[in-house]
Amino acid sequence: MARLQIDAISKTYGADYAVREVSLDIADGEFMVLLGPSGCGKSTLLRMIAGLEEPSSGRILLDGTDITEVAPQRRDLAMVFQSYALYPHLTVAKNIGFPLRARRRPRAHIAERVAAVAKTLELSALLDRRPGALSGGQRQRVALARAMVRDPGAFLMDEPLSNLDAKLRSATRAELIALHRRLGATFLYVTHDQVEAMTMATRIALLDAGRIEQVGTPEELYDRPRTAFVAGFLGSPPMNLFPAVVSWRAGGLRVLSDGIDAALDITADSGDDSAVLAGIRPEHLRIDSDASALRGRVTMVENLGSEELVHAAVGKHILCARAPRPAGVRVGEDVGFRVAPAHIHLFHPDSGLRLTWQEQSTRRPGALPAGAQAVSS
User: Fold this and answer.
1) SS3 39
2) Domain boundary at 176, 208, 233, which?
């Protein structure tokens, strides 16, 4: 088990940054997921931690020891690759035991460790087979077993489930969660799949363009996204985001946009209009035939089995609502929506930072309506 600390790590290729000043503290025994779109720098960051890429600047510490310049084979870390990287001519037993043979461990020790790890991952009956005779899920477990056999301080995993079909990916995901609980080891896991991140992680670090957008529990990122990018990336379908104005109306603040008029749970005496980027998650848009302030025309209904996604043209916006099936609406029908004030998210229209509200005694230039101001959280 190990604590990993990433201190202002950067990686450049010429004038371009693949990773830019990333700092991250991964606790001993934590399941940390590096999440983000393709090309955001998450695999590059993982390879620098493993020692397979050299950082342009910054430090990597393992249990307080600087390992930035330490050779990969001397780091107490085990890497699991997307392609499994198994030796096709070796049996499962020899693939699992390879790291110990490379370190010239005694044969009896190797056999003991291989048997123990194979039992943990239910591979005992497959030890005499070769990788070509295994399913994708079995190969994935062999790759994990090879990483486990030398009892590393931390496991580094680069999209290990991406080559599996949906059913097998779900099953293997559950196996990994159970394995982490049994071992209590530190896991650092790279994926672009938000379902993997939300279901497996104790914490998520969401990256974009080489920078960390937000670090927190899955619930924190989903319920209180720090930026509009986080809000738009997490969720399937993602949060509805649209430009709007926060305006004072009859003692309270409202979010106004083309075809949208929704109350905020904030009181104010008066104030000037302020531009924002507003967001509402699809599951928080409730279909209500009596609603008058937020209405649109249904453009598409997607059947997900137990639920339906209702897409509607509201003013110049297309909003998506998630509802239990049957939603009771049809394409072309006029439909109303309601949203609770607590479920409206506000972001700065330029920086994309989340806006929260604080009482203020003195108005400042650019502040939101009297009695409140926007700050990044």
Assistant:
1) coil
2) 233
| Same-domain pairing of 43 and 111 | yes
179 and 248, same domain (yes or no): no
Beta carbons of 2 and 65 less than 8 angstroms apart: no
Q: What whole-number distance in Å separates Cα of residue 377 and Cα of residue 368? A: 16
Tokens of 242: 């649209």
Residues 99, 186: one domain? yes
> Domain containing 274 — which CATH number?
2.40.50.140
Residue-number span of the structural domain to which 83 is assigned: 4-233
Same-domain pairing of 225 and 293: no
Instruction: Report strand pairing: 154-158 vs 186-191.
Output: parallel
Same domain, 68 and 173: yes
- pLDDT tens, per residue, the chain with 377 residues: 689 999 999 999 998 999 999 999 999 999 999 999 989 999 999 999 999 999 999 999 999 999 999 998 888 888 888 777 788 999 999 999 988 888 888 999 999 999 988 888 888 988 999 988 888 778 888 888 888 888 788 889 998 887 777 787 888 888 888 888 888 889 999 999 999 999 999 999 999 999 999 999 999 999 999 999 999 999 989 999 999 998 887 767 888 898 888 888 776 655 667 899 999 999 999 998 887 778 899 999 999 999 999 999 998 999 999 999 998 899 999 999 999 998 999 999 999 999 876 554 444 433 454 444 444 44
